[in-house]
Amino acid sequence: MNENASFPAPASAPVLAAFEGERLGYGERVVFEHLTLAVRQGERIALLGRSGSGKSTLISALYRRLSEAGRRVALVPQDHALVPQLSVFHNIYMGRLDRHGTVYNALNLLRPFRREREAVAPFAEELGLAPEILRPVERLSGGQRQRTAVGRAFFRGGDILLADEPVSAVDETQARRILQGMAERFPTLVLSLHAVDLALETADRIIGLKAGRVVVDAPAGALTRGELDGLYAG
Q1: What is the mean pLDDT of the chain?
Q2: Whole-number Å distance between alpha carbons of 169 and 12
Q3: CATH class of 42-72+158-234
Q4: CA distances from 199 to 26, 137, 171, 176 (A)
Q5: Distance from chain centroid for Cα 218
Q6: pLDDT digits (tens, 9 = 90+) for 48-94
Q7: Looking at the chain, which residues constitute the CATH 3.40.50.300 domain(s)?
Q8: What's the CA gap between 118 and 16, in Å, rounded?
Q9: Cβ distance 137 to 79 under 8 Å?
Q10: How many other C-beta atoms are found inside a 10 Å radius of the C-beta of residue 101?
């Protein structure tokens, strides 16, 4: 395991969100027929599984449940949820829209305040986006857009980060750097990842999904890559 990874949260750690035999899905489609799962404070969880296994559905359900409970949660959705016509600066700034009123946000949209530019700049710099900070995100590469979405989550901050494939469009070196930044900022992580090696390095708990079922739920240190490769077979 990566030296930055935490030890697994103790069983006595507070439960932040739990599902007890629940049916989850989207629209009319049912993805999980009978999901039982709990997320505890201080855990670093990696969700693994093929496309369509339920990772995005679980991330969305966790976000709704945690938000409804008043938890301070940041989100990196798989589709990034950026405003294409707005700049990298404005999209990162949106992480704190709820901290200001409508008039303040509108004025900052028209002519960014210096204090907000200075607040956002370190996040853009850390993520290699400083040269693009005033560029509309519709003119960025896929990897740059993904990093902008990560920057927005970093700027928002909070106790919990939920991220759906947050490093799928960047190279391995950048991915490790971004994941380290996440681990340093957020006490609790739930990350949907596509790379088994990165999951084993970053997480202290691995949840493997297959066809809407939890087929693996174990400490990362007790698993091998070979055991997890089976999630992608068949």
Answers
A1: 93
A2: 37
A3: alpha beta
A4: 26, 28, 15, 10
A5: 20
A6: 999 989 999 999 999 999 999 999 999 999 999 999 999 999 999 99
A7: 42-72+158-234
A8: 33
A9: no
A10: 10
26 pLDDT exceeds 90? no
Non-local (6+) Cβ contacts of 149 within 8 A are: 76, 77, 80, 81, 82, 91, 166
* Nearest CA-CA partner of 187 in 57, 2, 46, 40: 40
Q: Which two tokens stand for residue 103?
A: 């008039």
Helices marked H in 157-195 — which ranges?
172-185
Q: What backbone phi and psi angles, to 5 degrees, belong to 17?
A: -155, 145
Q: Can you tell me the distance from the alpha carbon of 35 to that of 27, in angstroms, rounded to the nearest whole number?
A: 17
pTM: 0.92
Return the structure tokens found at 83: 């405003």
Give pLDDT, residue 216: 94
User: 7 - beta bridge partners?
Assistant: none
Rounded Cα distance, 166 and 182, in Å: 10
Query: Beta strands of the chain (E only): which ranges?
Result: 15-26, 29-40, 44-48, 73-76, 160-164, 188-192, 205-210, 213-219
What is the Cα–Cα distance from 148 to 165, expressed in whole angstroms? 14
- Which one-letter DSSP state was computed for residue 136? B
Cα–Cα dist 71/17, whole Å? 10
